Prior knowledge:
Elements: E1 2-8, H1 12-21, E2 25-31, E3 34-40, H2 60-73, H3 79-88, E4 103-104, E5 114-116, E6 128-130, E7 143-151, E8 161-166, E9 169-172, E10 178-181, E11 186-191, E12 196-203, E13 206-209, E14 213-216, E15 221-225, E16 230-236, E17 239-242, E18 248-251, E19 256-260, E20 265-271, E21 274-279, E22 282-286, E23 291-295, E24 300-306, E25 309-312, E26 318-321, E27 326-332, E28 335-342, E29 345-348, E30 354-357, E31 362-366, H4 376-396, E32 403-409, H5 423-437, H6 444-458, E33 462-469, E34 477-480, E35 483-487, H7 498-509, E36 523-524, E37 529-530, H8 555-561, E38 566-572, E39 575-578, E40 584-587, E41 592-597, E42 600-607, E43 610-615, E44 618-622, E45 627-632, E46 635-642, E47 645-648, E48 654-657, E49 662-667, E50 670-677, E51 680-685, E52 688-692, E53 697-702, E54 705-712, E55 715-718, E56 724-727, E57 732-736, E58 741-747, E59 750-755, E60 758-762, E61 767-771
Parallel strand pairs: 2-32, 4-34, 7-32, 7-33, 33-35
Antiparallel strand pairs: 1-3, 2-3, 5-6, 8-31, 9-10, 10-11, 11-12, 13-14, 14-15, 15-16, 17-18, 18-19, 19-20, 21-22, 22-23, 23-24, 25-26, 26-27, 27-28, 29-30, 30-31, 34-35, 36-37, 38-61, 39-40, 40-41, 41-42, 43-44, 44-45, 45-46, 47-48, 48-49, 49-50, 51-52, 52-53, 53-54, 55-56, 56-57, 57-58, 59-60, ...
Helix pairs in contact: 2-4, 4-7, 5-6
Amino acid sequence: MSREMLVYARDTAAARTEVAEAGGRTLLEAAPHLLVISVPDEVSVGSIAAVTEDLSGLDEDEQLVADAWHTRFGAVSRPEERQARAARQRVVPWDAPGRTPPQHLQEEAAQERSVTLPPSTAESRGDTARSTDTPTSVVLTGSVAVGLVVVSGPATPPYWLPLHGALKHVSVSASGEVWGVNANDQIYRLNASSLTWEQMPGALAQVSSGSEVWGVNAEDEIYRWNGSSWTQVSGALKHVSVGDDGTVWGVNAEDEIYRWNGSSWTQVSGALKQISVADTSTVWGVNAEDEIYRWNGSSWTQVSGALKHVSVAADGSVVGVNADDKIYRYLGDSQWEQLPGSLKQVSASSAAVQWGVNHEDEIFRHDPSLSLTFSSSERSLVVSEVLEALTYLATEGASQNVTFTLDWHFPTVDVATGNGHDYEPMEAPWRDAALQQLGFPGSRAGSRQFVQSLRSGLGTDWAYAAYFTRYPLHHFAYAGQERLVMEYLNDGWGPNEINKVFAHETGHIFGAADEYGTCGCGASGHNQIPNNNCKNCTSNQVACLMNANTLTLCPWTRGQLGWPLWDSVAGALKHVSVGADGTVWGVNASDKIYRRDGNAWTQVSGALKQISVGNAANVWGVNKDDKIYRRTGDTWTRVPGALKHVSVAADGTVWGVNASDNIYRRDGNAWTQVPGALRQISSGNAAAVWGVNAGGNIYRRTGSSWTQVPGSLKHVSVAADGTIWGVNSADRIYRWTGAAWEQFPGALKQVSVGAWGLVWGVNASDKIYRLI
Length: 772
């Protein structure tokens, strides 16, 4: 067992060495003199001369990091506690309904290049390989520098802040419900928690959000939303408006004005091309000459000014835009105040909150509660979330000695928000201003220079940048080439899920592929590992960081990151078996029997040529004379009969085959012959029995008969949870997806599966491996 803690080290290089000599690891250099170390429980930190738990006298940034660590983990953290905490959290797929997933940008690399791998990652095929996207982040092995740039904007943000998406018309109610339609008349509703647009059924040319939602289509047909679908309303209008008290007015193609009385339309005197309703007594509109009118209860009163579009909110506030897209707010007494910006259409929720779209269909909102500045508590939360994500990855990458060196920056910039319908236009203004403060060119090339300087200056194998901001982005989180970018609010996932999104995007930096949405089955990462956990490639997808908000890594993601999928285990066995509870036994070429006790093999008396483990209480085997034995306490008990291969499940189910490939099932204290012929058989439980025959054909037990399964294997193994693996005559490894066999990297002559994550095997040289 080990524990993790934050310590101070004046000489971090010496501290790393001493921690390693004590049997520990340095997981993070969280700040220039702060290390997160993992040491065995029996090791006293006081025995490591180069470090101290005394954190007094830290500078401002170091204190921020220390406080964030202790707030999240306390004085001591344990990997198993973090894993247990993660296991208790609800796992939600990134693309679950109502959720918006992070993004992986398939950006074109700046140039084609080969990269030299550090000695720790050089492969037998040569020491150069094409980068995953950039030469600073090929495989997640060894040391990694992370430039963390947390960018605040001005204390007083611009009046209008952009929101990603494209609409030709937007409407907001007093309650803040926002609807809109785009250039193709597709309808969208804003998810207020995630600030993302959800497409709704139907097609409308204009929509109005009040106490209800109404709209008109390109044929001037009128519709109202009933909560799940659109109901057509009699009449024909080119524009409709619904107030927050349910009042509905509209105008038709001839600019005639109508008011809805609950069952039909009543014509109102006057002529308007566009109308806006707050409630029964508050109605404004503009006519074909852009003259402005307000309803006084019985007739229209002209208001000075000229607007092409007007909007009135439930609190009586009025905004509008003129023919030149200039924006105005009504002050009363026929006085208008011009507002910043340029919009073709505007909608007011209140005097404080307005939405609008410009002539390029870009969406904007004004809300005084919005901020571009990180508060001290928000900065601390970002730090703690990043520390948790990277501590997890460093712990999981222990076999590859993954360690992170963090370089923190907290610049404040005073630039306008970006505009446009793409990533770079929204990212560039604040990112480039921040890079210039750090002494680098304000450009993507400058961002790459920043990352290269981290790698060379800190002497790490790899490096990447992580930009955090409160500026609006084209998408809340994405990664590409040398950097990942995240918006603090983190969409519907929220700031408290930054750790998982950050870890997910870091996976993309090092070649891990998405496993949701339109993911594909092709190879990814430096080692070109197939994306077999993609939802489109398996019916038995497992929870993984690349498909859900969980700090869990599946084998395919590990391989794509550059980590080995199989862990070599000391010893030599010709046959190995793992039970559902993790119990492992095996036999070697001399038929000697071994049991795995902790991290070592214990020889057990007896001699068997093949062994099977259901769990610690169910261990069976056969010897070279085909005599059958079961483990009873500390001894072997002979079982009548003769089998060349036996299989026992955790529930006590036992099957076997004899020298003639006859099949037998253990019923009570006797063997019952079962029709068919198999040379090898595997029992996961009473309802999960598979086998292969002399021709390599695969069969599964279905009721009282055998059903052939496509494929060819020489050995199959089935677990109690239904996980099925096998190897073919060429020692290629396969996993059953529920519908087909998917090849898994590696080569084994025999494989055993106890559960989804418990897979052991031996190769042609009797070397032992277990799935990491």
